[in-house]
Amino acid sequence: MEQERNNLQISEEMLTNLVTTNQQIPENAVRDLLIALITLKYTQSNSVCFALDGQTIGIGAGQQSRIHCTRLAAGKADNWWLRQHPLVSQMDFRAGISRAEINNAIDGWLNEDYTNAEEKQWRMNFNVVPDRLTQKEKQLWLQGLQGVSFASDAFLPFRDNIDRAARSGVQYLVQTGNSLRDDQVIGAANEYGMAMAYSEVRLFHH
């Protein structure tokens, strides 16, 4: 099998068919939705993308199930937001460690299932080992993740994608549309006050 080159031009026209009660997509969200769509154009299907402030913050790609894509992307978006926590800037790293080691150490700070060996190695990155956030502290901080844009390279078959996306601050969506359960998906988006557009274009990349 051979797939032809995708020469589709991503444009704001793909965001004009709004199907939700909320018909307002601000300029910053338009930018983020376009960034998400461009990302999906070059991402292995099935895929979804979360974007915020002009950057991609979570991609779920190459999955057989759309909800698995959404869970992956949402988890990465959550992790990105947790890394913005003020405690990160206060971490006292050991002198001489590389940027990559610092990046991994911050990731380890958010990890709750390290083995004893991994935990020992992680602690060696610091002069003063930081306390990890509790689940309650994480949930409180994640409430600040808002205004996220979500794009899907094909239609959303069930409302579960909307429910999971809402937990990670998604307020603006673009998807292909025209699934058997469009009414349920639109209804879910309306429950959360989201604005959702149908691009009517599949961005499959195999």
UniProtKB/TrEMBL annotation:
GO CC list: cytosol
Gene Ontology BP annotations: 'de novo' IMP biosynthetic process
Domain of life: Bacteria
Single GO molecular function: IMP cyclohydrolase activity
Listed name of the protein: AICARFT/IMPCHase bienzyme
Native organism: Paenibacillus cellulosilyticus
